[in-house]
Design goal:
single chain; 260 residues; alpha/beta; 12 helices
Length: 260
């Protein structure tokens, strides 16, 4: 007789699921044979009863695409603009009002450029107006990914003040393109930092954000080159989607071998 196998992929922190999402997950979990999450922190957030049903494989980036279109020997020496980039849905989870507050106190950054759309667009524009920085906060909306990659390869810093995440692929893309990530100290971000040798920033310490961002932006490009090169190499190797896809294939293979 045929056996039906169900494998699920989880992309966000269970603690912040909406009520109906938790219900669907708990119901679906009765039938899933294996759950693969995109970070270890997601596993920690789940009400797990059978640990054998859970594996973690990090999200990845297309290393081959980046190596071909943004070669390391070229972008490590890029003369980057003094802009700070955000790529996020404009929703409470992303905590962008804090990002705008932090930006308002920075001395060495020209513009905060925000890519994405969402329910908080008007609120965030009003926030920038109230802080008298609306002429320096640019909302670009949703653009194609190729434009995002170009922007990251030409910009000095990337900012994520998220309250929670699954993993945050844009953080990884920024690092892979030499755009220094300044990211909150939530567990999924810490997994990224641990993998590529960076440090996250205390979500509740505004002064720490200001000091670290301004210090990076005031350094000359020649002083950043070694750090940027190391970050690009490490990120592209650790988060190569081809390698991670092979881990998925291995998990599927091992699972089927052990169950048939």
């Amino acid at each position: 007789s045929e056996k039906f196998i169900l494998i699920a992929n989880l992309h966000n922190d269970f603690r912040f699921f909406k009520f109906y999402q938790k219900c669907f997950y708990l119901l679906g979990n009765l039938f899933t044979d294996l759950n693969i999450t995109v970070s270890n922190s997601i596993i920690k957030s789940l009400p797990i009863k059978n640990k054998r049903k859970y594996k973690s494989i990090l999200n990845g980036i297309n290393k081959n695409y980046f190596d071909l279109n943004y070669p390391l020997n070229i972008i490590k020496n890029n003369s980057r603009n003094n802009n700070l980039i955000i790529i996020a849905r404009l929703v409470p989870q992303k905590n962008i009002d804090l990002a705008i507050k932090i930006f308002s106190k920075l001395k060495n950054v020209d513009h905060l450029v925000i890519y994405g759309a969402g329910e908080l667009l008007h609120f965030l524009k009003q926030k920038a107006i109230s802080l008298k920085i609306s002429h320096r906060v640019i909302f670009k909306g949703i653009v194609n990914r190729e434009e995002i990659y170009k922007v990251l390869s030409e910009s000095t810093g990337y900012l994520s003040t998220s309250k929670w995440e699954g993993i945050g692929v844009a953080n990884i893309e920024a690092a892979a393109l030499g755009c220094m990530p300044f990211i909150s100290d939530i567990e999924p971000h810490n997994e990224i930092c641990d993998a590529i040798g960076l440090n996250s920033i205390n979500l509740n310490n505004t002064n720490d954000w200001i000091i670290k961002i301004d210090n990076w932006f005031q350094r000359k490009n020649s002083e950043k080159e070694i750090t940027i090169e190391k970050m690009i190499k490490s990120t592209r190797n650790k988060f190569d989607s081809k390698k991670l896809a092979a881990l998925y294939a291995k998990e599927y293979r091992n699972f089927f071998i052990s169950n048939f």
